[in-house]
């Protein structure tokens, strides 16, 4: 469709969000403000903004290296930075739950974000961009660099669903729509390797800390283990083929992954399952009907979230320890702020199908929500 | 008095005579011989007077004499007693002797007694005399004191005397010396003497006043002269009017011949003079706008001019009357309870009364449909209302669901954002309503017309938020600034309503009327069909379980229109609850979806349903079509059909279920799923005809 790119840009002009953030609505057609008019969204702009907020999805989160700020990326390509320390302080007001700064980072959705000790890396449609945390906090939101993995030519630009930092190699692994894992050297910015094997697009990545091995899970229903040194696939677990965890009506896709030494937990279309990697056997199947979109190990617990309002807490034995309801109808990402620099900001944040990021100060209940 | 005194003296003399005789005879030896000598001498000179004797004698000595005599008498008595008690013959002589002696003593006592009386009398006389003298002095003193007081009073009176000249406001001292001629001011005399100075200033004042009086008389005569001139000119002008009239009369056939309706316009202007100020402003501005910018706008005045003339009064008066009569009526209602309801009704009618004249605006749109607007002025509320009517060139078959689209009640709703026209824009009205028991104007708008804010602005009425009614003035500039935008909005509104009207007629028959210029937005083959399009009540919409988000976001106000669409394909049924904002098509209709296929799917449990909603609600700008984008609703519905096709066809096949897929994939898609939320390829790419992800 000719001009669709331009139309897309016009749909989400940065200025209209800046307006919304300041909370001062200018009324269309120059009509003078009347008390009646200020109730509810009335003007074209207000209605549009309200609808946009209603249909917002927050795909990714990342905590700043100082641990005091949280960046969240949504489906409109915007990144909002919230101040956790301000929102958690005793004199927090409504405004402190609003973003400190919001900027248009990508044209498409921001699917994944990670933070290095200086940079915020964000990825969306085809590209990964780097932003300096120091610059962002000074509200000068200019990208530092952008890189595109070498794609085979295609009608559409493949998206990047997952970013993974490998600190030992000082490299970044990108995975997504083109079914490959691309390793990028953060020093030079060059793409060093491409790991091929998946037959459909990749949803998630996880790093095994001890050996330089990376796990990836994708739409094809397989979890693949890669050795970074040899750039070879080491092991493949086709989860949907195991009867105890397959759920054909939900599909095969693996939406989330997490590892802890020899243990791996993954979920998605098939049930959330804890695997022993060396023996490639499922040890625990967690009784959760809804597909899970994010999972993580936390101390001796497993936290998972997905379809439905709740953050689920599991014992390793498969017992559901708690379900803590959040404010979004579905969750896509969890983020544990464990930065040693800011122990007072140690919180769990969850975001998904709404414009709100729920903040859990302890695992028991939702304290409040940050909002775009 | 003198005679009396003489008589007393005579008597005294005789008495004294005897006494002195006794004295002379008996006690020459014993009692002070000098006294008697002097007495004698005195007697020798004139007549014997005891009064004179009193002056000569010493009272102290008389007292001694009295004491002595008494002692003698006592002694003699005692001796006689003694003698008598002893008895004897010789005693008698002795007693006789003693008796004689006693007699002499008695005589002396008598004399002393007389003297004492005389002395007493004399003392009294003296006292009396002295007293009289004192009285006389006292009288004199009082007279003098009175005189002093009187004089003092006179003095103060004099001091307090006020002269008339003090009230006269004189020119100041410096000015006086500066301006007054020296023969009046006489500086060398008056400088030192305030009295003379005042006199001189008064003289100057008099002089000045005389001059001013002279001037006044001159001016009066001048005025007289000018008045006369005016009179003459007026006469001339009044004689001019009939002459002009006759010229006008003569020119009528020419005007008609040349199609120049000057006269008709003139008549309308004549009528316009009787319009109330806001309607007049509207009339003038609308006429001006019509002539200058928009030939499709025609303006007319309706109603009876005579009634308007009869009613004409300055607005403040009528308001005062109103409140007065209110007060009276309140009193009477208190007295007569049974008629209370009727009276309140009358009062309400009176309050909601509109001006007999109204202004008609006819706005012709491109397709020959006409929007008739009638503007009224509610005199007692000081607001304007409007009634709207739409007539179309060709007769329309009214679909059931389009009932509200062109109704006079809703066709102009929210022309400007939030302007529902249900509440009075004049803050002062609420107090008036309280008086007669009107809760809100809402119940009367159908009858009176809607008091939209833009109507007030067209009439130049501006209602500041916190100030009372009296600051409300009809203002031409306010009206002029809103005329153009409002007229354009009105036209757009009518056109969009008519367009919706047409669309609804098709939608009710299950046809989505996609126009040829919007065809490129959709693939050629769309399998899903619209099967139902009905209007639903606001309350019903609020109760639907899948519309909670919209209600919470405040997008479901009661001025919107609500519809329910049902799109079907095979066993899949997609319900869509639609909010149609009166501001269509600049504000898009909002869709909330609920899919019944393999369980109930809404935006809360299916990300792709959510994505479909955002495709029609947020990305509606792609669906607007050519301006003025009246086809938006149709395009959104068609898009929804396409989206449902994509949703169903790309649903992953469950391998465990036997048999073929219900919905074979016919659409060309690059990828089925993308991104963490596994979005389906909803975006249609026009010339190539494939679907991709947004």
Structure description:
Chain A is mostly beta strands and about 375 residues long. Helix content of chain A is about 10%, strand content about 40%. Chain A has five helices and 28 strands. Chain A has helices spanning about 5-10, 15-20, 45-55, 85-90, 135, and strands spanning about 60-65, 70-75, 80-85, 100-105, 110-115, 120-125, 130, 145, 160-165, 170-175, 180-185, 190-195, 200-210, 215-220, 220-225, 230-240, 255-260, 265-270, 275, 280-285, 290-300, 300-305, 310-315, 320-325, 330-335, 350, 355-360, 370. In chain A, strand 5 (about 110-115) and strand 6 form a beta hairpin. The longest helix of chain A is centred in the first third of the chain and has 11 residues, at about 45-55. With about 700 residues, chain B is of the alpha+beta class. Chain B folds into four domains: about 50-160; about 190-260; about 275-310 and about 340-495, no CATH class; about 510-650 and about 660-690, no CATH class. Helix content of chain B is about 55%, strand content about 10%. Chain B is built from 22 helices and eleven strands. In chain B, strands 5-6-7-8-9 form a five-stranded antiparallel sheet. A four-stranded antiparallel sheet of chain B has the order 1-2-3-4. The longest helix of chain B has about 70 residues, at about 90-160. The radius of gyration of chain B is 67 Å and the shape is elongated. Chains A and B meet through helix 1 and helix 3 of A and helix 21 of B.
């Amino acid at each position: 469709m000719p001009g669709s790119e331009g139309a897309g840009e016009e749909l989400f002009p940065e200025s209209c969000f800046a307006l919304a953030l300041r909370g001062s609505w200018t009324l269309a057609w120059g009509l003078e403000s009347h008390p009646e008019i200020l109730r509810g969204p009335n003007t074209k702009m207000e209605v549009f903004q309200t609808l946009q907020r209603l249909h917002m999805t927050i795909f990714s989160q990342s905590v700043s290296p100082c641990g005091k700020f949280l960046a969240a990326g949504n489906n409109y390509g915007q990144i909002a930075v919230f101040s956790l320390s301000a929102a958690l302080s005793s004199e927090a007001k409504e405004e402190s739950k609003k973003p400190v700064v919001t900027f248009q980072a990508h044209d498409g959705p921001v699917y994944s974000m990670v933070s290095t000790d200086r940079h915020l890396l964000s990825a969306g449609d085809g590209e990964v961009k780097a932003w300096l945390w120091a610059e962002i906090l000074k509200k000068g939101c200019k990208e530092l660099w952008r890189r595109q993995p070498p794609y085979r030519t295609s009608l559409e630009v493949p998206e990047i669903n997952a970013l993974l930092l490998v600190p030992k190699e000082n490299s970044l692994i990108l995975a997504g729509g083109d079914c490959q894992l691309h390793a990028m050297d953060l020093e030079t910015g060059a793409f060093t390797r491409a790991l091929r094997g998946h037959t459909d697009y990749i949803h998630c990545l996880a790093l095994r800390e001890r050996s330089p091995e990376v796990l990836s899970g994708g739409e094809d229903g397989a979890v693949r283990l890669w050795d970074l040194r040899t750039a070879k696939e080491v092991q493949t677990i086709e989860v949907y083929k195991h009867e105890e965890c397959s759920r054909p009506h939900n599909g095969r896709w693996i939406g989330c992954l997490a590892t802890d030494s020899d243990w791996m937990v993954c979920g998605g279309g098939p049930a959330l399952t804890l695997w022993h990697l060396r023996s490639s056997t499922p040890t625990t199947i967690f009784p959760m009907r809804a597909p899970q979109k994010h999972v993580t190990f936390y101390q001796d617990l497993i936290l998972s979230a997905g379809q439905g309002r709740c953050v689920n807490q599991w014992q390793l034995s498969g017992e559901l320890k708690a379900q803590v309801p959040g404010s979004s109808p579905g969750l896509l990402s969890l983020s544990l702020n464990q930065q040693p620099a800011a122990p007072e900001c140690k919180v769990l944040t969850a975001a998904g199908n709404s414009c709100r990021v729920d903040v859990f100060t302890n695992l028991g209940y939702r304290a409040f929500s940050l909002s775009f | 008095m003198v005679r009396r005194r003489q008589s007393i003296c005579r008597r005294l003399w005789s008495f004294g005579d005897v006494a002195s005789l006794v004295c002379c005879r008996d006690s020459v030896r014993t009692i002070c011989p000098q006294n008697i000598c002097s007495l004698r001498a005195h007697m020798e000179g004139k007549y014997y007077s005891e009064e004179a004797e009193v002056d000569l004698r010493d009272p102290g000595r008389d007292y001694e004499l009295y004491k002595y005599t008494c002692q003698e008498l006592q002694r003699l008595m005692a001796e006689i007693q003694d003698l008598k008690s002893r008895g004897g013959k010789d005693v008698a002589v002795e007693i006789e002797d003693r008796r004689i002696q006693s007699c002499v003593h008695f005589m002396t006592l008598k004399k002393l007694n007389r003297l004492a009386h005389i002395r007493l009398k004399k003392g009294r006389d003296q006292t009396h005399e002295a007293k009289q003298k004192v009285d006389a002095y006292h009288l004199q003193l009082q007279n003098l004191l009175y005189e002093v007081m009187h004089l003092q009073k006179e003095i103060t009176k004099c001091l307090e005397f006020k002269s008339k000249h003090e009230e006269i406001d004189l020119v100041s001292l410096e000015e006086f010396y500066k301006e007054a001629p020296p023969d009046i001011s006489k500086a060398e005399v008056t400088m030192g003497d305030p009295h003379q100075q005042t006199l001189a200033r008064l003289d100057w004042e008099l002089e000045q006043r005389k001059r001013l009086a002279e001037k006044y008389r001159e001016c009066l005569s001048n005025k007289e002269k000018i008045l006369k001139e005016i009179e003459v000119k007026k006469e001339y002008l009044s004689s001019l009017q009939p002459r002009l009239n006759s010229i006008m009369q003569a020119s009528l056939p020419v005007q008609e011949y040349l199609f120049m309706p000057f006269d008709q316009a003139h008549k309308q202007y004549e009528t316009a003079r009787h319009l109330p100020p806001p309607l007049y402003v509207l009339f003038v501005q609308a006429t001006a706008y019509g002539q200058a910018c928009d030939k499709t706008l025609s303006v007319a005045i309706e109603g009876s001019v005579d009634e308007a003339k009869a009613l004409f009064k300055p607005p403040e008066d009528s308001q005062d009357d109103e409140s007065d009569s209110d007060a009276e009526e309140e009193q009477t209602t208190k007295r007569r309870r049974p008629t209370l309801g009727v009276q309140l009704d009358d009062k309400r009618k009176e309050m909601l009364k509109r001006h007999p004249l109204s202004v008609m605006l006819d706005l012709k749109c491109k397709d020959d449909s006409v929007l008739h607007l009638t503007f009224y002025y509610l005199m007692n509320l000081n607001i304007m209302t409007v009634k709207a009517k739409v007539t179309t060139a060709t007769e329309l078959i009214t679909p059931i669901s389009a009932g509200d689209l062109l109704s006079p009640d809703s066709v102009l709703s929210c022309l400007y954002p939030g302007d529902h026209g249900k509440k009075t824009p004049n803050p002062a009205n609420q107090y008036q309503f309280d008086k007669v028991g009107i809760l809100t104007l809402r119940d009367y708008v159908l009858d009176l017309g809607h008091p939209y804010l833009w109507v007030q602005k067209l009439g130049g009425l501006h209602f500041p938020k916190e100030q009372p009614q009296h600051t409300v003035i009809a203002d031409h500039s306010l009206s002029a600034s809103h005329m153009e935008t409002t007229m354009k909005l009105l036209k757009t509104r009518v056109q969009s309503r008519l367009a919706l009207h047409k669309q609804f007629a098709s939608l009710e028959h299950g046809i989505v009327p996609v126009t040829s210029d919007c065809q490129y937005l959709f693939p050629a083959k769309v399998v899903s069909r619209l099967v139902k399009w009905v209007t639903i009540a606001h309350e019903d919409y609020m109760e639907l379980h899948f519309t909670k988000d919209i209600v919470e976001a405040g997008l479901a106000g009661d001025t919107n229109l609500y519809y329910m669409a049902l799109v079907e394909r095979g066993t899949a049924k997609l319900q869509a609850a639609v909010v149609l904002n009166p501001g269509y098509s600049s504000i898009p209709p909002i869709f909330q979806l609920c899919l019944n296929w393999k369980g109930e799917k809404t935006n809360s449990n299916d990300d792709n349903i959510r994505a479909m909603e955002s495709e029609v609600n947020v990305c509606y700008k792609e669906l607007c079509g050519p301006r003025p984008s009246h086809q938006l609703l149709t395009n959104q519905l068609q898009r929804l059909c396409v989206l449902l096709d994509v949703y169903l066809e790309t649903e992953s096949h469950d391998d465990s279920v036997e048999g073929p897929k219900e919905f074979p994939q016919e659409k060309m898609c690059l990828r089925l799923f993308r991104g963490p939320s596994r979005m389906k390829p909803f975006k249609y790419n026009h010339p190539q005809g494939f679907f991709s992800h947004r």
